[in-house]
């Protein structure tokens, strides 16, 4: 049966350009259908309150996913973002009470950028496998977080005058601040990816490393930068999560790396590198979150939500590979 | 060089053996995962502290780091060192059964602390010491019933799926509510994984779904309860009674402030002291019960001043 479907995808590409365009935008259409179906069954689903809540929740994962998209476009992985999120959140929450909000943010960002540059150095310059490096880094950072907190939760006590309070509860034109930060960061990063020389070098590095080798692009430098970007966006997410719960637990980011990865892949970035888009990554994360929210509103249990979520992700990956493979064969 | 090493080794072993001979009892402890959460860290400190108060006891305190294979090896080591008793905080109730059986065969009493070993392992242990997590769920149900005057709808945020404490607290809560407080019904439960941020998300979705229909929230620990409180505050909902279990410092403060109805005190210090006290009884040849639960009293604004603010 699957070979039939695969051939069908092939036919779409081979014979009908218009349908090909539809298949490319299929993801967006799927999203709209999803929203429509859920809104039929749940009155609350499309109410602005719920939509705002879901996007606020998605902001944390989404902001990390923005950075990780760069890494994946470059043909690598970053599995350390979940632990980095725990570490960043704990650090920023703890320092917040000791040295104040802005110095705390600066220190935390520095620390995460150091971690990111270690990742980047090992992958870009020593040419180690990114899966192994960042998986190892995941444990190292988790350990560092446990040592730093000696197992305790961190709470922000000086809440009222804090910039964190604004990030958490503030609104601009009735839109919650996390959503605004999410959108602004997304737009800036989309421009960086699609509109700059760095972005073009990155696509080349991820898409065809051999050609890049002969073209004189310093691909190591490009890959190194992607890890800095992913550390930076994870730092932003750490601020969001710490201000959201007004504190941090040393396991707060556990498992986030997979959800982030899922969002990026759902957004159509290929794990093989060379393709990806920030806007689509954001859409991917939103689809994940709206899917989970919709299932929850319909009263499905947690386990079912996860099964459905991952079935959708695997389906999306298969669709992506099926389409890409046919396209490559055609070319 | 080798000779030198051998002599140093010999000297060391003499030192250690005389050291342990100086005490009457050697107690070996292997803990689950010190440093991963505040509770276990505080337990570890309290345990070591309490040990120094027994002058005739020497303790070998180990930590399995959450790794069941390492914990089995640690118990093996303790058996080989012929300790007088083993206090075990199981990383996994199933996998440790064979090694506990071996300890029993070697005549070493094993005392399980905090969370119990599997059914099959029960015949090989001498005693269990820890909180009664079913009772904790019951207490939470009683608090909820009291807070809502016996009538209302509640949502439940449970702990990590599959973890025994989470299962028991949910069971105790649900059974007790059904039996003794028929006016209060549970309209939905979702897991919060002991994670505050996750619980906040779950609560936000509950609020979207049920809105003002929610009269109460039960969270399986205060850390998650505070997540729920954050969501409730943000949605500007009033009159929702929040009940937690395992009183954390944040929960304690919230109860005092009046924004949180109540919780169940479970002190890691009591936990450690109880485990050692049972072990000493066994070593002294006194009879002990198989299951020993230390007290986990209910706490609300009415009686909060009787309790110290938790350190975690």
Structure in words:
The complex is a heterodimer of chains A (331) and B (312). In chain A, helix 3 (26-41) runs parallel beside helix 14 and helix 5 packs antiparallel against helix 6 (101-125). Chain A is mainly alpha-helical and 331 residues long. In chain A, 78% of the residues lie in helices and 2% in strands. The model of chain A is unreliable at 16-22 (pLDDT under 50). In chain B, helix 3 (68-80) packs parallel to helix 4 (97-105), helix 5 crosses helix 6 (164-180) and helix 7 (196-210) crosses helix 8 (222-234). The relative contact order of chain B is 0.12. Chain B has 312 residues and is an alpha/beta fold. In chain B, the strands form three sheets. A six-stranded parallel beta sheet of chain B has the order 2-1-3-4-5-11, sandwiched between helices. In chain B, strands 7-6-8-9 form a four-stranded parallel beta sheet, sandwiched between helices. Chain B has a two-stranded antiparallel sheet with strand order 10-12. Chain B has two domains: 25-131 and 268-295, 3-Layer(aba) Sandwich (Rossmann fold); 133-266 and 300-306, Rossmann fold.
Short description:
Chain A contains 15 helices and four strands.
């Amino acid at each position: 049966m699957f070979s039939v479907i695969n051939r069908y995808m092939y036919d779409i590409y081979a014979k009908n350009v218009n349908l090909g365009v539809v298949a490319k935008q299929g993801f967006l259409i799927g999203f709209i259908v999803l929203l429509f179906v859920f809104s039929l069954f749940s009155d609350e689903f499309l109410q602005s309150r719920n939509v705002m809540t879901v996007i606020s929740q998605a902001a944390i994962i989404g902001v990390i996913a923005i950075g990780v998209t760069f890494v994946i476009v470059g043909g690598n992985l970053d599995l350390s973002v979940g632990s980095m999120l725990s570490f960043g959140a704990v650090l920023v929450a703890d320092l917040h009470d000791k040295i104040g909000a802005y110095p705390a943010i600066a220190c935390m960002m520095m620390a995460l950028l150091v971690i990111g540059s270690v990742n980047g150095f090992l992958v870009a310059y020593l040419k180690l496998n990114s899966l192994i490096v960042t998986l190892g880094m995941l444990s190292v950072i988790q350990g560092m977080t446990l040592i730093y907190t000696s197992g305790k939760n961190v709470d922000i006590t000086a809440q009222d005058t804090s910039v964190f309070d604004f990030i958490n509860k503030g609104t601009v034109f009735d839109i919650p601040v996390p959503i605004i930060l999410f959108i602004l960061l997304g737009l800036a990063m989309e421009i960086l990816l699609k509109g700059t020389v760095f972005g073009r070098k990155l696509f080349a590095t991820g898409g065809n490393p051999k050609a890049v080798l002969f073209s004189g692009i310093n691909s190591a430098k490009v890959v190194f930068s992607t890890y800095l970007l992913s550390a930076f966006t994870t730092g932003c997410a750490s601020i969001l999560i710490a201000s959201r719960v007004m504190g941090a637990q040393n396991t707060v980011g556990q498992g986030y790396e997979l959800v982030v990865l899922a969002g990026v892949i759902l957004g159509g970035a290929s794990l093989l590198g060379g393709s990806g888009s920030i806007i689509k990554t954001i859409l991917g994360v939103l689809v994940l979150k709206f899917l989970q929210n919709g299932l929850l509103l319909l009263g499905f249990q947690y386990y079912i939500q996860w099964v459905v979520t991952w079935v959708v992700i695997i389906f999306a990956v298969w669709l992506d590979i099926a389409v890409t493979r046919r396209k490559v064969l055609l070319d | 060089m080798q000779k030198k090493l051998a002599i140093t080794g010999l000297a060391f072993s003499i030192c250690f053996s005389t050291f342990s001979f100086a005490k009457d009892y050697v107690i070996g402890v292997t803990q689950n995962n010190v440093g991963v959460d505040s509770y276990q860290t505080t337990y570890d400190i309290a345990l070591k502290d309490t040990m120094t108060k027994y002058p005739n006891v020497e303790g070998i305190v180990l930590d399995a780091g959450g790794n069941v294979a390492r914990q089995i090896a640690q118990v093996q080591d303790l058996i080989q060192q012929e300790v007088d008793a083993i206090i075990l905080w199981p990383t996994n109730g199933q996998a440790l059964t064979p090694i506990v059986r071996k300890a029993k065969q070697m005549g070493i009493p094993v005392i399980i602390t905090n969370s119990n070993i599997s059914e099959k392992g029960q015949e090989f242990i001498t005693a269990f010491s820890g909180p009664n997590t079913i009772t904790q769920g019951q207490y939470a149900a009683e608090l909820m019933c009291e807070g809502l005057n016996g009538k209302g709808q509640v949502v439940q945020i449970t702990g990590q799926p599959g973890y025994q404490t989470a299962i028991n607290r949910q069971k105790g809560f649900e059974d007790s509510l059904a039996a003794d407080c028929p006016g209060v019904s549970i309209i939905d439960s979702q897991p919060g994984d002991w994670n505050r941020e996750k619980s906040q998300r779950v609560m936000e979705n509950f609020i979207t779904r049920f809105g003002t229909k929610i009269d109460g929230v039960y969270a399986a620990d205060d850390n998650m309860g505070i997540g729920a409180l954050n969501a409730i505050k943000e949605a500007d909902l009033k009159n929702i009674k929040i009940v937690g279990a395992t009183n954390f410092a944040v929960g304690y403060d919230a109860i005092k402030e009046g924004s949180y109805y109540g919780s169940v005190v479970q002190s890691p210090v009591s936990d450690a002291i109880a485990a050692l006290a049972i072990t000493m009884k066994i070593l002294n040849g006194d009879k002990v019960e198989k299951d020993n639960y230390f007290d986990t009293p209910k706490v609300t604004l009415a009686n909060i001043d009787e309790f110290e603010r938790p350190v975690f």
